[in-house]
Design goal:
Elements lengths: L1 H21 L3 H36 L1 H8 L2 H33 L1 H15 L8 H33 L8 H24 L4 H10 L1 H13 L7 H16 L3
């Protein structure tokens, strides 16, 4: 798996050179601006609502009043850490749903970019075919809904686990790796579709090559330092990394 994560990281650097050499920066900037505006607006709304959720849970459990009565520094520390872990999990929970909305809305652009990237790699002229794009979009939406369902179940379990002192402190790491896996999976599936993999075959192949998906997702998160570049870079890097693995 480590080797596949390295391949995914290398593909992101190759994506940067690929975009510059083939002059497709317009396909990065346009979707990136839309993504950035939605991301900033969504995070603003979420941050205010998450504060209310955490405060409600705390008041329902009467934790703060209990801590004031106990006046125990160790218990206060545990509560603070649990509060932080819960907030991190809620951020990832929000980001998970935001990500899936973007994957659905942006599926035509992602399908086009993946096809164009593959055509350039193979030295072919890319011919736009709306029928193929629509087919890829429908497949992508179906996969997104499937992944969203499973990830929601896992995230709810992690939210409950995060409430347990000490044990719950590892939940943000687990949630982040899971986020990366499902995002990378969605980006790679466009390439799997073009080599006539069924969705069940795509799921089986991805489960055997988790490193590719996790690596792609990790860099996607890091790229949020430059939010505008993240989505389109991800699909190009995913196509390049799948080309290296050459699933059959």
């Amino acid at each position: 798996m480590l080797k596949e994560i390295v391949i995914a990281f290398q593909s992101w650097d190759e994506a940067r050179r690929f975009i510059r050499q083939n002059k497709i920066i317009k396909w990065i900037i346009g979707p990136g601006i839309i993504y950035t505006l939605l991301f900033i607006a969504g995070m603003f709304i979420f941050w205010h609502s998450s504060n209310q959720v955490v405060s409600w849970v705390s008041s329902q459990l009467s934790i703060e009043s209990w801590l004031q009565q106990e006046r125990n520094e160790w218990l206060s520390f545990l509560f603070l850490m649990t509060n932080m872990m819960l907030r991190l999990i809620l951020v990832l929970f929000y980001f998970s749903f935001f990500k899936y909305i973007i994957l659905i809305i942006g599926s035509p652009v992602f399908a086009y970019l993946s096809e164009k990237t593959q055509a350039i790699i193979e030295g072919k002229e890319h011919q736009f075919n709306w029928k193929d794009i629509r087919k890829d979009c429908l497949r992508s939406i179906k996969l997104v809904l499937r992944n969203c369902g499973w990830q929601t179940i896992y995230l709810i379990a992690l939210i409950l686990l995060s409430l347990i002192p000490v044990v719950g402190w590892i939940t943000p790491i687990i949630a982040l790796l899971m986020e990366c896996y499902y995002f990378g999976f969605s980006m790679h599936d466009y390439s799997y579709a073009r080599i006539n993999m069924s969705q069940s075959e795509s799921i089986a192949f991805t489960s055997r090559h988790k490193g590719l998906s996790i690596g792609n997702g990790l860099i996607f998160y890091i790229m949020h330092l430059l939010i505008i570049l993240a989505p389109a870079y991800a699909i190009i890097a995913a196509t390049l990394s799948v080309h290296k693995v050459k699933p059959i």
